[in-house]
Design brief:
single chain; alpha+beta; 689 residues
Length: 689
């Protein structure tokens, strides 16, 4: 049974208001557009296809209106005779995300063209406000036809971004879609998944997603979404579904499904699930699945898992080795703490070695002071002997496992004029003060330690360094205690002076963090984050010079990565990336952030993730999904704060959809993406027009 208006009840007042607003907007649009477009074309000359031409003047004009967030100018195109421009105008609002646009966008939900209706639904869902719900429900077409399946699918996903438990219940119990109804099934699965990302789940939704992922007749595009729901959804119970999920986990030929189901099986308390995970680890060839198996095994008894985790420490793939070391850090026991130290000295990958030192420090009993001193000494020596600043920063993080190292961490970290090391030093101190066990650990000395580290934070505010200010601000905001009790009352002046000296939009991320810290010290709510003003127009000459299949090649010592650029989806982002590449901006920059089975990230001028230039660009949030490995997106500190930093995904990351601009897709060199380590250099990025 399909959605019916009888189940999604609208009050009469809501319905009347919604319809009235539609009529008003339609009349305004018609009056405004008659003069612009003249008489509408006769029926036989109507255009029915959405075609995007990046060199077309109207494509560029609409993109500029989006870039400048000129809403009234975009509304004019809602009645353009060419559906391509209606589509582009509606899509623009998916990035603007303004509740005031919902009523106007709703007029396009009755457009003649399916693609236009669908992108309007996407844009409405992007607003994420309950006010959008009646409009979306009203537009859902009960009578299933091929010409409305894309629209209906988009509406289902959009409802998942703004609906309530009532809508989730109805969506979850709709089971009549056929395996051939791909767009409807995708919409249903995306909708339930979007609810889960908002921490709205129910048993019916979980049952439906289990049914989708375990049905071999269902298209893989749908099964991947369902598997990621089982992976990402919090507080769902999967014990009752283990017998259905285990065979799919073992036999699926799609690694995207296996890696998601590995984590899902870890949510059960089942011995069968544990045994399936252990057995599959030995058979699995995809390193991403092995990483997720190790992650899942954290939920099972240590004695059953430790042998395979120890073996994984020496895995040929460094991601797997790191994940195994993380297992011992998170799940180790005090009886084995000394063995972790000994293992750390046994020719492991450097990051695994440092993490195992950290595991030894974390789990060693407090009374083993002599042993702790030896472990601590060995880890401190690593700080001096490892050469890379990223390695040194990793050591400082490991030293936090014995928090009395705070003086060493600050003293040695501040000495080195290296952004990654100094940022790593402050991040390590922040980790100490945000630990819920802070006061219990330091006991009677907790006040003095809090004041010592608070003074370190004040030094950071006085430094004028954007990264240090941002990290110190986050530390105060997220401290496990009220920092206003441990730093001088007049210190807020230091923070306010630092705020006044920040350069916008270059240091927008730091500005946000510092505002929050000041509010915390004043015991107030932080101010709403303001959208950066328009400051960097799109360079259309760069776009006009592109071929129909523009590519970027990232050269590294590990090999080359070839990216298909997507100017039709994100012209401003692509133009910015091309300009920076041709200027040689990326040459010699590091991949500063590597998260196994997630992303590699680079393009920071500082090399620590806090760098930017003196401008920002707009978010361009198209309906594309991060449903495969190799998507290239822009790092962001919030909507419209992008600049130079980009990332490439190792695996599906659909929780990023609609929040991070997709501007490219790897078409060659995914194995190089997987091989990139923290600190590896971008030698050059070249553009094929």
């Amino acid at each position: 049974m399909y959605f019916t208006k009888a189940i999604f009840v609208l009050t009469l007042k809501q319905a009347q208001k919604s319809q009235l607003m539609k009529h008003i907007v339609w009349m305004l649009l018609i009056v405004g557009l008659v003069g612009q477009y003249g008489c509408m074309p006769v029926e036989e000359n109507k255009l029915t296809e959405v075609n995007i031409d990046i060199r077309n003047d109207l494509f560029q004009r609409i993109s500029d209106f989006q870039d400048r967030q000129q809403l009234d100018s975009l509304y004019h195109y809602f009645q353009h005779p060419d559906p391509s421009y209606r589509y582009l105008a509606a899509r623009a609002f998916a990035s603007i995300r303004d509740e005031a646009t919902i009523d106007s966008l709703s007029t396009l939900l009755t457009d003649e063209i399916d693609a236009v209706r669908a992108v309007a639904a996407y844009a409405i869902g992007q607003v994420g406000e309950a006010a959008a719900l009646p409009t979306l429900i009203d537009a859902f077409v009960q009578e299933d036809t091929a010409s409305f399946r894309r629209t209906n699918g988009a509406i289902l996903e959009a409802i998942g971004k703004c609906g309530t438990e009532q809508e989730l219940s109805f969506m979850s119990t709709t089971e009549t879609y056929l395996p051939t109804d791909t767009l409807l099934l995708e919409g249903q699965a995306w909708g339930i998944y979007r609810f889960a990302l908002r921490n709205i789940t129910n048993l019916e939704g979980t049952k439906r997603m289990v049914a989708l992922v375990t049905d071999a007749a269902i298209p893989n595009s749908v099964r991947v979404i369902a598997a990621n729901y089982l992976y990402r959804a919090r507080n769902i119970q999967l014990d009752a579904f283990e017998e259905q999920l285990i065979p799919v986990f073992i036999t699926s030929d799609d690694a995207r499904i296996r890696m998601a189901l590995a984590v899902a099986l870890g949510k059960t308390s089942s011995e069968n699930a544990q045994n399936a995970l252990l057995a599959q680890f030995n058979e699995e060839e995809d390193y991403r699945v092995r990483c997720n198996i190790l992650r899942a095994l954290s939920n099972f008894p240590y004695e059953n898992v430790q042998d395979i985790a120890r073996k994984a420490l020496r895995d040929a793939n460094f991601h797997v080795s790191n994940r195994a070391a993380q297992y011992f850090l998170e799940n180790g026991i005090e009886q084995d703490a000394v063995s972790y130290w000994k293992t750390a000295q046994d020719s492991l990958y450097w990051q695994s070695e440092v993490t195992m030192y950290g595991a030894a420090l974390r789990h060693l009993p407090l009374y083993r002071a002599e042993m702790r001193n030896a472990i601590n000494y060995g880890l401190r020596q690593k700080f001096f002997t490892l050469e890379s600043p990223y390695q040194k920063a990793t050591v400082l993080d490991a030293l936090t496992e014995f928090a009395w190292n705070y003086r060493f961490i600050h003293r040695e970290g501040i000495k080195l004029e290296s952004a990654p090391v100094q940022s790593g030093m402050l991040s390590a101190l922040s980790k100490i003060t945000s630990d819920a066990n802070f006061q219990n650990f330091f006991r009677g000395g907790s006040g003095k330690v809090a004041r010592d580290i608070g003074n370190y934070y004040l030094q950071a505010f006085r430094s004028g360094d954007a990264a240090q200010i941002a990290i110190a601000s986050g530390a105060i905001t997220n401290a496990s205690f009220a920092y206003s009790n441990y730093i001088p009352t007049d210190s807020i002046i230091v923070l306010e002076q630092a705020l006044a000296q920040l350069e916008l939009p270059k240091e927008t991320e730091t500005y946000y963090e510092l505002e929050a810290a000041i509010a915390k010290l004043q015991q107030k709510e932080p101010p709403a984050r303001a959208t950066p003003a328009f400051n960097h127009p799109i360079d259309w000459k760069l776009i006009n010079d592109l071929t129909d299949q523009p590519k970027a090649q990232i050269n590294t010592a590990k090999g080359d990565i070839t990216i298909r650029l997507l100017p039709e989806a994100a012209p401003g982002t692509v133009a910015n990336f091309i300009a920076l590449s041709r200027e040689g901006f990326f040459d010699g920059k590091n991949f500063h952030r590597i998260v196994a089975n997630f992303v590699i990230q680079g393009g920071c001028p500082r090399g620590d993730g806090y760098g930017s230039l003196d401008y920002s660009i707009r978010s361009e949030l198209s309906p594309l999904h991060y449903d495969e490995a190799g998507y290239v997106g822009m790092a962001s500190a919030g909507n419209h704060t992008e600049g130079t930093q980009f990332f490439i995904t190792h695996s599906p990351t659909p929780h990023l959809d609609g929040n991070y601009t997709i501007f490219g897709k790897v078409i060659k060199g995914l194995e190089v993406v997987d091989a990139i380590e923290m600190g590896d250099l971008i030698e050059e990025i070249s553009i094929t027009r």
